[in-house]
Amino acid sequence: MAFYAARDFLFCAVCGTSLSFRSPEFASCPLCGFKRDASEIHGKELSYTITAEDIRRELKLEPFVILETAPKQEEGVQRAVVNESCPKCHHPQLEYYTKQLRSADEGQTVFYECPECRYKFSHNT
């Protein structure tokens, strides 16, 4: 008698396809025809957990949201400039960009950076 892992009893031992129950005596593989006696399956409990990530991976879909830990800035990209002085070194202009971090019905967060001393701070609008 062959040994089957507890979680593999409903899958084909040859190709891994889910077995079909078309007879009370055995379960068969619809792909390769492998048959497993029903007595090997009788009385076993079945539980599966499928996550959204499993479904996306199976369907070869990209994630809906990509979380970033910090805003990325490419070299040579210029930010917008505002005529406000730096709170640290009092340089007369600050570079800035905005990003929606909270829910859509709330304002954007404005990120400022001083081009002189590189002091960074943010403000929720």
UniProtKB/TrEMBL annotation:
<feature type="zinc finger region" description="C4-type">
    <location>
        <begin position="12"/>
        <end position="32"/>
    </location>
</feature>
<feature type="binding site">
    <location>
        <position position="15"/>
    </location>
    <ligand>
        <name>Zn(2+) 1</name>
    </ligand>
</feature>
<feature type="domain" description="TFIIS-type">
    <location>
        <begin position="82"/>
        <end position="122"/>
    </location>
</feature>
<feature type="binding site">
    <location>
        <position position="117"/>
    </location>
    <ligand>
        <name>Zn(2+) 2</name>
    </ligand>
</feature>
<keyword id="KW-0240">DNA-directed RNA polymerase</keyword>
<dbReference type="GO" id="GO:0003676">
    <property type="term" value="F:nucleic acid binding"/>
</dbReference>
<feature type="binding site">
    <location>
        <position position="12"/>
    </location>
    <ligand>
        <name>Zn(2+) 1</name>
    </ligand>
</feature>
<feature type="binding site">
    <location>
        <position position="114"/>
    </location>
    <ligand>
        <name>Zn(2+) 2</name>
    </ligand>
</feature>
<dbReference type="InterPro" id="IPR034004">
    <property type="entry name" value="Zn_ribbon_RPA12_C"/>
</dbReference>
<feature type="binding site">
    <location>
        <position position="29"/>
    </location>
    <ligand>
        <name>Zn(2+) 1</name>
    </ligand>
</feature>
<dbReference type="GO" id="GO:0005736">
    <property type="term" value="C:RNA polymerase I complex"/>
</dbReference>
<keyword id="KW-0862">Zinc</keyword>
<dbReference type="GO" id="GO:0006363">
    <property type="term" value="P:termination of RNA polymerase I transcription"/>
</dbReference>
<keyword id="KW-0804">Transcription</keyword>
<dbReference type="GO" id="GO:0003899">
    <property type="term" value="F:DNA-directed RNA polymerase activity"/>
</dbReference>
<dbReference type="InterPro" id="IPR001222">
    <property type="entry name" value="Znf_TFIIS"/>
</dbReference>
<keyword id="KW-0863">Zinc-finger</keyword>
<comment type="function">
    <text>DNA-dependent RNA polymerase catalyzes the transcription of DNA into RNA using the four ribonucleoside triphosphates as substrates.</text>
</comment>
<comment type="similarity">
    <text>Belongs to the archaeal rpoM/eukaryotic RPA12/RPB9/RPC11 RNA polymerase family.</text>
</comment>
<protein>
    <recommendedName>
        <fullName>DNA-directed RNA polymerase subunit</fullName>
    </recommendedName>
</protein>
<dbReference type="GO" id="GO:0008270">
    <property type="term" value="F:zinc ion binding"/>
</dbReference>
<feature type="binding site">
    <location>
        <position position="32"/>
    </location>
    <ligand>
        <name>Zn(2+) 1</name>
    </ligand>
</feature>
<feature type="binding site">
    <location>
        <position position="86"/>
    </location>
    <ligand>
        <name>Zn(2+) 2</name>
    </ligand>
</feature>
<keyword id="KW-0539">Nucleus</keyword>
<dbReference type="InterPro" id="IPR012164">
    <property type="entry name" value="Rpa12/Rpb9/Rpc10/TFS"/>
</dbReference>
<feature type="binding site">
    <location>
        <position position="89"/>
    </location>
    <ligand>
        <name>Zn(2+) 2</name>
    </ligand>
</feature>
<dbReference type="Pfam" id="PF01096">
    <property type="entry name" value="Zn_ribbon_TFIIS"/>
</dbReference>
<keyword id="KW-0479">Metal-binding</keyword>
